[in-house]
Specification:
The protein contains twelve helices and 20 strands. It is of the alpha/beta class. The termini are far apart. The structure holds flavin-adenine dinucleotide.
Amino acid sequence: MSARPEIREVHKTRCCVVGGGPGGAVLALLLARRGIPVTLLEEHEDFERDFRGDTIHPSTMELMDQLGLAERLLERRHTKIRHLSFGVGGQTVRVADFTRLKTRFPHITFMPQADFLDFVAREAARYPSCELRMGANVQELIVEDEPSADAPPRGAPVPVVRGVRYRARDGWHEVRAPLTIGADGRFSKVRRLAGFQPIATSQPMDVLWFRLPRRLEDGEDAFGRLGNGHFAAVINRWDYWQLAYVIPKGTYRDLRAAGLPLLRTSVAELLPELADRVDHLRDWKQVSLLSVESNRLRRWYRPGLLLIGDAAHTMSPVGGVGINYAIQDAVVAANVLTGPLRSGRPQLRDLASVQRRREWPTRVIQAIQSRAARALLTTVAASATPAGPPAALRLLPRIPLLRDLPARVVAFGIWPVRLDDP
Ligand SMILES: Cc1cc2nc3c(=O)[nH]c(=O)nc-3n(C[C@H](O)[C@H](O)[C@H](O)COP(=O)(O)OP(=O)(O)OC[C@H]3O[C@@H](n4cnc5c(N)ncnc54)[C@H](O)[C@@H]3O)c2cc1C
């Protein structure tokens, strides 16, 4: 049995948020603005890291606007994507036109996620009720038996989460709080420690993640292209293009054995506009293999603990909506939990209410992502190039009622949420 770590410090707060990704950082900001003592724990020393999206959706921009922060946020380096297009068989269809949306922000804002998180965390840290702790790697939950307030039988002792223990450079710390929120992403430690088992909602997808140089004269859009047995999402990151390149499941070893020249040829075939720079790929170290999948929890909470964002429902990168969903979870959690946190301890019914409001939109979007991923993987596995975009995609822009649907879903989610007045 491992010895109990020596605790250097016990810190007390009202809400302990684990994970400084979009969900956790925005939640900390919203609670701090309302004067709720909140401590945000992030395992990394900074917000720089790879394998994540850089998208800020119109709903998040509207939230920032509501908080009076939109203008300041947009002073940071960003680009605006007004359309999303999908190319297959030499034809390109515009799948989302954000300019038609009724919003002050009719575009997807692309900003390095590290910049966005840094901005949000700095704003949160301006409030005296907020404490931001970087390099805080949460390893344990503090669980204590307490008389149940709302789970039957009333008064019987139940295990309640009362905070976490984390390891930092200087040793172990304890954060004690009436409510802990796990916003620690798709490999959530908090979820595992709490004993939750996610249910897979789509099959895993193998994605190669690498960069190619970007030139000034290149177009600015992000786009997707399907062909020669592969799919590529191409994302503008200023001085380079970020490529997410889908390969048939389980073929990475063979691909590596065949050598980099084959990957370069295949990328050049699919993306002829980037063929003149595939030579930039000189070493497999430049290429990361990601196995991405989506899943969800049946229950997002237990006494003293709530999970939000990818920790509760890991989103596939398909459609680029996971950040939006994590932030919308944070908004709903702030709406529902501010009152209970002010007056004492949120009860199970409060935590259940957050799940109830967010579960349905999450399940719908995951079902859409799963269908899209299946169609993509079937084509990729068959190494086939369809003659052109599927009929449904081609017809979409011509049907007035449906035309704006993809843009609206990417921009606002299935069920738009708005921050209540405090
Ligand atoms: C390759 C890829 C590309 C994607 N592209 C997009 C996109 O373009 N647009 C989009 O909307 N979505 C995209 N997604 C999905 C998106 O990244 C997630 O849905 C979103 O980041 C979820 O936010 P979150 O705050 O719940 O979790 P995360 O963003 O994963 O943040 C969790 C945070 O918790 C921290 N953490 C983890 N464990 C601990 C611990 N033990 N202690 C303390 N801190 C901890 C992590 O360091 C991290 O900062 C992509 C996903 C992948 C895999």
